[in-house]
Amino acid sequence: MMDFLFFGKAKTERKQLRAIGHFLAKRYRYGKDILPTAFLTRLGEGRGLCAEALRWITPGTRRREILEQLEARYGDLLRTDRHHGRRENAEVALVAIALALGVRAYFLQPFKIPTHSMRPTLLGILNQPETNLPPGPFVRVRDLILEGKSYHRAVVPRDGGILSVREGRLAGILPWTTTEIVADGWTETLWTSLQEAREGGLRARSGDQVKSGDILANFSSATGDHLFVNKFIFQIRKPRRAETFVFTTDKIEGIESGLRLRGIEGSQYYIKRCVAVGGDVLEVRPPELWINGQPAQNPACQRVAAQKDGYPGYTFGPSYLAKPGDEYRVPAKDYWAMGDNSPNSFDSRGWGPVPAANLVGKGAFVYWPITKRWGLIH
Question: Which fold has domain 226-376?
Fold first, then answer.
């Protein structure tokens, strides 16, 4: 219950009146569409009295009379039921959710990089074996918060046989994938998926015989870069050469046929670099990408071609631009997508151009983890 204490010693009369006026105005704004007319009229009268009392020319005696009058005639307006605060909080939460969904739908959408096709500009999930013991708790927490890096180690506690190696869920139901190594008399859980554990060097399979002290796994996992995609910008202009962009694979048969073979239905989101636009003529002359008869001039493509700082240079593709002398003209309304990690990128060289209808937005900002890649995407 929320009551105003009209004669509290801790507040001046003016502070009390301002608080009352603010409260009455808030009730009026929140309820003007649903409250009865008579109730709204009384709210207006109470607000008028507050306005009168707050005028500098109003004598102190009149101000005190108004306070008493507000308590006597409008006291019921100044009290709320015990559920009112909850309703207001719920309304605020719903508005916040609606705004967040609106921003996500039309302006900024978060994405996570799963693969290394844009390495080293953007990194995907990286699981790699470690030779040393995992660091202490402080370093592990710091690495997880700042770099999204976690450590995993499994050591056999005693001799026996492994019964199964399987994926599970945290507490059996929570959507956190784990790897469970179940043996005769003991179980070890790795807080990562089975695929990632295998990539990190997990050496354990059903039926294996193990000895006490055997190291089954010792690896680290670094999460893929998390970024915001600007979905609004392509509503007012077209993609430009060398921008990173996100698109769907909808109706790109060269991608979706492969997804169906893996049991994946529906379109996926891809992120690549838009190296060329409609009308451009492309040719690969390793390590350079040529556009319209000359090496690509934008700094991002030159950085890839330079073969420095982890950039491998441009290579031939499996289907398009597959050998020396191959050229390709990008259709007028399409775009050509290539990964900065050209030798390990499944991109337009494999399945062709990206239709304009598939565009989602521009890769704008890496917000986590906080590494040298944090910030604007170039």
Answer: Umud Fragment, subunit A (2.10.109)
Please count the other Cβ atoms lying within 10 Å of the Cβ belonging to residue 327: 12
In the structure encoding, which two tokens stand for residue 108, read together?
């900024």
Angle (CA) 354 324 300, round 5°: 50
Determine the pLDDT at residue 230.
Answer: 93
Residue pair 316/277 in contact by the 8 Å Cβ criterion:
no
Q: Which of 88-92, 240-244, 325-329 has the lowest mean pLDDT?
A: 88-92
Separation of alpha carbons 297 and 264, rounded Å: 38
Least confident of 16-30, 82-96, 170-184: 82-96
* Domain assignments of the chain as residue spans, ordered by start: 13-85, 126-222, 226-376
Decide: helix, strand or coil at residue 161: strand
Strands 294-295 and 288-291: antiparallel
Q: Which of 47-51, 203-207, 228-232 has the highest mean pLDDT?
A: 228-232
Residue burial 160-191, b: 16+ Cβ < 10 Å; e: rest: bebeebeeeeeeeeeeeebbebbbeeeebebe
pTM of the full structure = 0.69
If one counts every other C-beta atom within 10 angstroms of the C-beta of residue 50, the result is: 23
Q: Which amino acid is at 173?
A: I
Which residues make Cβ contacts (< 8 Å) with residue 92, sequence separation at least 6? none
The predicted structure's pLDDT at residue 378: 87
Alpha helix ranges (H) inside the chain: 13-31, 37-53, 60-74, 84-106, 137-147, 194-199, 233-236, 253-261, 299-305, 348-351
pLDDT attached to residue 93: 66
131 compared with 5, residue with greater pLDDT: 131
The answer for residues whose C-beta is within 8 angstroms of residue 35's C-beta and 6 or more apart is 43
